[in-house]
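pls read this stuff:
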Amino acid sequence: MNPPISDTFSQQLQGMRTALLDQLRSQRGGEINRAEAAAEARDQQSDDWSKADADRDLAAALEERESAELVAIDEALKRVADGSFGLCLDCGMSIPNARLHANPTALRCVACQEKLELAHGSAMPAGY
């Protein structure tokens, strides 16, 4: 991938990373850490324990997803830096730019991603 194109994807990934970190800070009420956010949420809970449990489970699932997304972005930035960005992890062929613009953390071309999903019997997250 030539430098101007990799710069474009690097900027897109950096923007995604910044937006995701801003979203995480906002969800946690600013710069507070996870433990402080949990204590604050616990203090604000109503007497409806089942709703509180469901809310906590949802928040944990969202945070896990966002953490995985952040890791995928950081890994894509490493691939940009080492020159392997845009190459399919399985077949080594170039991943089309249209796919990378839609999902800059994609690890595989469409054909290899479909093979992987068929082998696992279900759709996997797009970055895998």
Summary: The two ends are 20 Å apart (CA to CA). Residues 86-128 form one domain.
